[in-house]
Amino acid sequence: MIQNTSAARSSFAQISKAIAPFTSAFKTPAGRIGLPLVLLHVLLAAFGSYLAPYSATDFSDATYVKPFTSAVDGAIPHILGTDQFGRDVFSRLLSGARSIILISGIGSILGVALGTAIGMTSGYLGGKADEIIMRVADGLMSFPSLLLALLVLSVSDSLMWLDGISSAFATGKESILVIGTMAVVHAPRVARVLRSATLTIKTQEYVDSARLRGESAYYIIFKEILPNALPVLAVEGSVRFSYAILLASSLGFLGLGVEPPSPDWGAMISDSRSILTRAPWVPLAPAAAVASLVVGVNLLTEGIRDAQKLPTELPE
Amino acid sequence: MTDNSINQTDAAPLLEVKNLGVSFFTPRGTVRAVRDASLTVRRGEVVGLVGESGCGKSTVAFSIMGYLPGIVQVDGEILYDGKDLVGMDESDLEALRGNRIAMVYQDPQTSLNPTMKIGPQMEEVLKTHLDLGKQEIRSRAIELFESVGLASPDTIGERYPHELSGGMQQRVVIALALACEPDLLIMDEPTTGLDVTTEATILDLIVDLKDRVNAGILFVSHNLGVIARVADRVTVMYASQTVEDADVRSIFNSPQHPYTAGLLSCVPKPANELGITPRLKSIPGSVFEARLEAGNECLFAPRCPIAHDQCTQNAPEISDTDGHRVRCFFPDEVTSDIWGELKPRRDFESEDDAVVIEANDLNVRYRSRQGKKYILFGDEAQPPVRAVVDASFKVTKSRTLGIVGESGSGKSTTARALIGLTQKSSGSMLLNGDELETDSANRSDDQRADLRMVFQNPTASLNPKLPIKHAITRSLKLFGNLDNQGAYDEARALLEAVGLNPDYIERIPSELSGGEQQRVALASAFAANPKAILADEAVSALDVSVQAQVLNLLLRNQQENETSFVFISHDLGVVRYVSDDIMVMYAGHVAEQGPADAVLSSPSHPYTEALLSAAPEPDPDATPSIIRLDGAVPTMRERFTGCFFADRCHRKIDQRCDEIEPPAQSGNSPDHIIRCHIPVDQLASQS
């Protein structure tokens, strides 16, 4: 019984420790704006499609309806108007949130996880192994990420083994490839940062004393060093997320994201850029959505960084 | 300690701090850094300001300079030459600072601009404050460098700070402070970061300055030995209040505040006339925190052995008897034994001479880079640094080997090689007769469990993100094969054994004080009853009262578990207190080793002699010894020949010292070894 409660207490403590960078970020001005903005987008991704007043994909005759007006008297107003095919922009925006957040979220989480594991191991091992791993990372980093993504996507048809994975996750091959590319692109950058954090932390005496207890390298890296690298990790993860969003929407803009007609913010901008002068709200709305998400993530990053400089609370 | 024939009490005070209070308003609440401090400095007088960390000594010093950061409220008066500095406007203060009042900080490296040569830095100060011509400034700079005892004062101005040793840097800082012939010199722990031999030379300089310059000096230090050496008057601070203020002899010989008496009894002293080293007394508990609001009570009462009811009901005021001012209701009750009777250091002697740790010709070389300078091209890289050279020693059951030496002497490297964190280059290490692998990772669990280590910095040796139980329970699980619950219970028991509340077990290290953290580190080292513990400067980062607690804890553990210790410290007093055997190291070489009494008495190696005479004694009547070493410990590289100590030796005899490695001679007994060219009988006679 005592065992259980103490186990519960420690798992609760672990969770609260893990989200601590975010909760403390809320205490800074930047975090106070950034965190709600990001949370709003995440909520939209989760529930947006259910809130949408109109279908996101069905064409209608009510084309170019201006924002905040109804096409027909008594109907729900089109908050952000309609596009050249009569689709409700607001509904498309809500439905499109999911794909971009999911793709960039999963992509950056995978990249951060991969990069953390590689970077910390490399930093902890040091010596020749470190040298080799870091040179490979340098090589990967010299590749422009968009170009790499385009390259991978252009050969997607020939990658038969991906069919199984994409059907298992009930999604297109492209999404899987974009996520995979993000992970590969971000991992070396994350690895670099985590490696340098590890290099500093591993000289601390508590790491020495863990080695003297005969702990395994795995235990020392993930149990002793990782908790101390968490603040760095939170900032880095957040930075990677904002880059992932930009990459995902860039690919969408180039027509390589989610397959039409399902809405995608990048594709929405691309499709409507020709009508920028006639119905500016149509391209501007998704552009603003991408921008607000990226700004939100960046502000959150800033907040996390600032929060680390705040004095920690005194114990009771 | 010099006798000043002028009757100082008659002179008008240069600086008078009256009932100073300093409060910082921080996001974490109000911090009462100084509650009620009063002190007086006269011309030609050194006033020592002493107390443990967190007692507000430095804040007093900084508030005199007017350097208080953040949102701050200053109460009381700081009278300098009759003018109140509190509330004086910035431009008037500016005129005083640097010109009339100068300050010397703890770390000379941060006080000097690393990108500027010494000379221009000095000339800049002179130009700002004095109206002198170019040539006059130059000659004045040289004069100043000479006055602080810098070698070749006319060329030293051409050097950058990093080209000077720590002691020389501090001399430059003192010269800068003296530039405008200030009336008041404030020194904030000016020797704390320096090695003991360097510290001794700087203290000599300060004592000398006191007689030469007509200035008052406020000397802030936590080190009672240093204070006894330089101060004429001493002000003791506790919990942001001055608790006692008197001339130096009264403070050291007949303290009237229990805290002062306690501090004095916490400092390790040499054996008394009977050859018994008295056991250290310790002050229980910890300092009343600055962020707490004081009630109507004596702030020392919770830790005081003679506290009466009155002490918790009323706050004592400072009372003055013949210039001896004390903040206590019962100064007459303060005697030397209020902190416990005089007991010998420990009440057992080990009979068992089973060897626990043995090292034979242990060598450690550090290689900066192997092969060529640029991996494949360039010159050969520098030859490896000889960090430890041919060290051989034995530690028997429940005995302590003390390793002493300045920084860079290789004592920590010896410990790290023993424990397997640093790779030895050659030689052998044995634990209970079994060979120890070079790398800790290749040793058996039993060996790891039997040989543990305590590090210097308790804050760094505990993982800041994990509860304190972590280090203890992990050791228990790995070495004691206990399950979760068993390890948890045992960890609580261990915490209790080191005098900590077992309910602290879930706390993270930052919620504990430095002394409490070091106790946790000890508890984790004691886990699974090791045969031997290596303590690398284990008490150096601690305040003197906490240091005594930890030292006594180590001795008790030794007594109960028959543990052997290797105790490493730069502080000869501490090593002398804990050790049965002593090994003196210098630049990686063992200069002298043997039983503690033999090493500390004549004949000794010239380096031991210098170390002994440099160690400040907490006794104002002690005659300072004259043996002083210049310079710093050199880095020994592979191609070095001759005696390791020849460069700095004050007893260097002839060419032999530069060319031939010194022989190992037997001193008092066969196991007392001195590595020196000077014959043993001469070593004995001359010292």
Care to describe what's here?
The complex is a heterodimer of chains A (316) and B (687). By secondary structure, chain A is an all-alpha fold. Chain A has one domain: MetI-like fold (Orthogonal Bundle). Helix content of chain A is 72%, strand content 0%. Chain A is elongated and about 75 Å long. Chain B is of the alpha/beta class and 687 residues long. Chain B folds into 3 domains: 13-115 and 182-253, P-loop containing nucleotide triphosphate hydrolases (Rossmann fold, 3-Layer(aba) Sandwich), CATH 3.40.50; 116-179, no CATH class; 355-686, Rossmann fold (3-Layer(aba) Sandwich), CATH 3.40.50.300. In chain B, 31% of the residues lie in helices and 22% in strands. Chain B is built from 23 helices and 26 strands. In chain B, the strands form 5 sheets. In chain B, strands 6-7-8-3-9-10-12-11 form an 8-stranded mixed β-sheet, with helices on both faces. An 8-stranded mixed β-sheet of chain B has the order 20-21-22-17-23-24-26-25, with helices on both faces. In chain B, strands 2-1-4-5 form a 4-stranded antiparallel β-sheet, with helices on one face. The chains are: A mainly alpha (316), B alpha/beta (687).
CATH H level, superfamily name of chain A: MetI-like
Spatial strand sequence of the major β-sheet of chain B:
6-7-8-3-9-10-12-11
> Per the principal axes of the C-alpha atoms, what is the gross shape of chain A?
elongated
Low-confidence stretches of chain A: 311-316
Task: Tell me the number of helical segments of chain A per DSSP (H or I, 4 or more residues long).
Answer: 12
Mean residue pLDDT of chain A:
82
Kindly name the structural category of chain A: mainly alpha
* Straight-line distance between termini of chain B: 22 Å
Largest sheet of chain A: none
Summarize the main sheet of chain B.
Answer: 8 strands, mixed
Helix content of chain B: 25-40%
